[in-house]
Amino acid sequence: MAMSTVTLTVHVDEIERLFREHNRALVAFLQCRLSSLSDAQEVAQEAYLRVLTMDNREEVGSLRSYLFKVAGNLAIDRLRKRKVRSDFAAAQPGDEAEGETTPVHHAIAVEQVAGLRNALRELPAKASQAFVMHVIEGRDFAVVAQTMNLSERMVRYHVANALAHCRAWMDEKEMP
Amino acid sequence: MAKTNPDDILHVAADWWVRLRAPDATDETVDQWLTWTLEDPRHLATFERINEFAASLRSLDTVTHRSLVRAFMRPAAPSRRWLPWTAAASLAAMVLGSAGYMGWAHFAPGTTTQVYNSAIAQNRDITLPDGTQVALGASSTMTAQFSRQQRRIELRNGEAFFQVVHEPSRPFVVGAGAISVRDIGTAFDVRRTGERVTIAVTQGRVEIADLSQRPGEARRGSLQVSAGQLVSYDPAMSSMTVGSIAPEQATAWRNDRLEFIDEPLSVVVANLNRYSNRPLYIADSDLDKLSYTGSIRTDAIDGWLGALPQVFPLRVNKAADQVILSDAKNAVRR
Questions:
Q1: Beta-bridge partner residues of B173
Q2: DSSP readout, B71-102?
Q3: Between chains, do B307 and A36 touch, taking CB under 8 Å as contact?
Q4: CA closest to A66 among chain B residues
């Protein structure tokens, strides 16, 4: 009894340190995977809980690697569930009335959209298309690769390029 | 050895971003990424900015989303470059640009000229003598001059959609200010707002020439444009931009919906005024340049006006016979 209490205490300290040192990176990693900050924060919470309640601490080498592994798997589960839900939604009759008369939903920043369009125009056609399909439409690399008849590696290359280019473009515009 | 240039960090961060998103990313990749984030505080910060940027793009409004997808998902990239103005490039356009145009101005014998007008808020369908179908937008004016050698339309103001009966021996040419559009078996839409012109091709191809020529300046080139492409001519810059547009978007006005892609507010207002019995005015010229993308129902302009201050920093003052748009900042100061 006494032994296990001691182990758990050490373990809690370790998790506290992990949280302090790596929580920001963990959330960033999960946001990258899930494309949503709130989902990322939720999954991170769940991952800490899993690590906290694990009963095989001695079998695991680096607790940090373990935390990211657990979080990564939870993210995959969540993406799978999300896909089931969106397939279900896609099968429902569509609702085309989207309030076209009001410009309210342009509030994101009309100028930024215009800037983005210009930035995308400066890119090779393949890069802008891969970017729009993956980042804006949310299609998997595999789907983009198939549609564009490219390897997934090339799609990733184009998306990364376009992403850096557009982000840099927006940064320039944000300067006063 | 750490990279210090912010641009380099941005590229590396973007590269990590796509690698981590790949379904086959290994635990080792994640570990390497983590090591990279610990090398320099800017690394994680830059990665977070990429995340944030990507998230904002996933939550775009429907109209913007659709217009971006339409603009960049086409297999054939729009050509953005002027074709060089050489004899080889286009002899036909040369004839059209100089002799042909002058000839028309002189009203050659055997030419019939007809003027077509439409009232505010009234679109009008017209069949020309050659069978060409024209849908003339509200408050628009065009003249048609037909001879045995040529069919020439001049769009003086407003918008028109042409479904041209192709005659190889008798070109069909639409002039709109400094721009001329020559049909090569086509349906296309031309919108003229003052000297600003947009051309949307819904079928076939057209050749567009810029006829403006300043003293001492070489003549500008011509541009071939095909279905699905949108050309905007900006008189201030004397430049043309090529983008993409879906056919139903180009002719949405025929179903009481005006669509705008990156158009200055002044252009949006001028076109709405063709459909509104209560004209809109922009009081402060700094509002002219605000860029608008979206669609507006011509039978619900009031609703659109009501929501406009949420998008742009402006105030809407409605009077019985007019609507004034003014800068929100100036309004406070007054």
A1: B152, B182
A2: HH--SSPPP-SPPP--TTT-HHHHHIIIIIHH
A3: no
A4: B27
- Joined together, the tokens standing for residue B246 give 């879906």
The CATH topology of domain B77-251 is Jelly Rolls (2.60.120)
B204: alpha, beta or left, given left = phi > 0 and alpha = psi -120 to 50? left
- Residue B2 banded pLDDT, cuts 50, 70, 90: very low
Please name the helix (run of DSSP H) or strand (run of DSSP E) that holds residue A45, with its range, or none. Answer: helix A37-52
Instruction: Supply the mean pLDDT for chain B.
Output: 80
Residues B149 and B99: beta-carbon distance below 8 Å: no
pLDDT digits (tens, 9 = 90+) for B109-125: 566 778 888 888 889 89
CB-CB under 8 Å, B69 with A110: no
Contact B224, B88 (CB under 8 A): no
Residue B35 CA to residue B23 CA, distance in Å, equals 20
Q: A–B: how many Cβ contacts below 8 A?
A: 183
Domains and CATH numbers, chain A: 2-91 (1.10.1740.10), 104-174 (1.10.10.10)
Examine the pLDDT at B253 and tell me if it is beyond 80.
yes
Q: How far apart are alpha carbons B21 and B17 in whole angstroms? A: 6
pLDDT class of A106 with cuts at 50, 70, 90: very low
- Cα A164 to the chain's mean position, in Å? 16
Mean pLDDT along residues A104-120: 67
Phi-psi region of A27 (alpha: psi -120 to 50; beta: other; left: phi over 0): alpha
Alpha carbons B100 and B93: distance in angstroms, whole number:
9
Query: How many residues are recorded in chain A?
Result: 176
Q: Tokens standing for B41?
A: 């505080």
Any idea how long chain B is?
334
> B65: alpha, beta or left, given left = phi > 0 and alpha = psi -120 to 50?
alpha
Task: Tell me the angle at which helices B6-21 and A2-34 cross, rounded to the nearest 10 degrees.
Answer: 110
Neighbours of B248 (CB within 10 A): 12
What is the spatial distance between Cα B162 and Cα B135, in angstroms, rounded to a whole number? 7
In angstroms, what separates the C-alpha of A58 from chain B's closest C-alpha? Answer: 20
Phi, psi angles (nearest 5°) of residue A153 = -65, -45
Binary contact (A103, B77; C-beta < 8 A):
no
- Write the DSSP symbol of residue A65: H
CATH 3.40.50.150, domain B256-334, yes or no: no
State which residue of chain A sits closest to B67, comparing Cα positions. A117
The domain limits of chain B are 6-59, 77-251, 256-334
